[in-house]
């Protein structure tokens, strides 16, 4: 047994990319999975696809920057699938087309980045910890970023938000450890997602050559780390951040 079979998992931002791969991996390992994404159609499509293996799934369109939307979604998840055992806080993004130097930054972008990357993580975690404490079991995996530790240029607000995710992870890990709940973070480096694939080919090649492993990560590389933190092999590991980046940056 892997500690995942028969569990109920929620993966936020799982309509594509890393989140989709994490949802698929947990379903393949035997968990019932709630797929949450702002794109309702994508969430439902992913849920239907990963449910072909025989596990229960649920696809929901949810704005993870809205407390009310999150609360309503988790009520539906519990009613449909049962109490949540595994939460993967994956939803998030950088400023992308609105990246800028700090001196020239639009502070409205900061509000959005904090909401989608850090506040969503806090709000979703709040929905599950009460039940996890009662049942003396739970796995929370927060997706941070290599940017949280290397201070990537022109993504200062993203780096700050993802560093906040690491701090939040460590704090609640210490609080929840006595209740049999582990809280860990996974920090992807450059990973071949839809956003990365929109970059010029020559830029992708240049980034890949700069990584010791010689390539960018794949969503499944991140999903493998998430699966470890979601299963029983990590029962004595909590408050940790694992960078999955081909050796590009090391703690």
What does it look like?
The protein has 251 residues and is of the alpha/beta class. It has nine helices and seven strands; from the N terminus they run E-H-E-H-E-H-E-H-E-H-H-E-H-H-H-E. The protein has helices at 17-28, 40-50, 67-80, 107-135, 147-150, 156-176, 194-197, 201-209, 219-230; strands at residues 8-12, 32-37, 57-61, 86-89, 138-143, 181-188, 241-244. It has a seven-stranded parallel beta sheet with strand order 3-2-1-4-5-6-7, with helices on both faces. Helix 1 (17-28) packs across helix 9 (219-230), helix 3 (67-80) packs parallel to helix 4 and helix 4 (107-135) packs parallel to helix 6 (156-176). It starts with 7 loop residues before the first strand and ends in a 7-residue tail after the last strand. The model has no long low-confidence stretch (mean pLDDT 94).
What is shown here, in short?
Helices cover 46% and strands 15% of the residues. With 251 residues, it is an alpha/beta fold.
Largest sheet composition: 7 strands, parallel
**Helix/strand structural class:** alpha/beta
Question: Could you name the ranges where pLDDT drops below 50 across 5 or more consecutive residues?
Answer: none
SSE succession: EHEHEHEHEHHEHHHE
- Please indicate the percent range of residues in DSSP E strands (runs of 2 or more): 15-25%
Helical content (DSSP H or I, runs of 4+) = 40-55%
* N-to-C span: 31 Å
- Helical run tally: 9
Spatial order of strands in the largest sheet: 3-2-1-4-5-6-7
- Mean pLDDT across the residues is 94
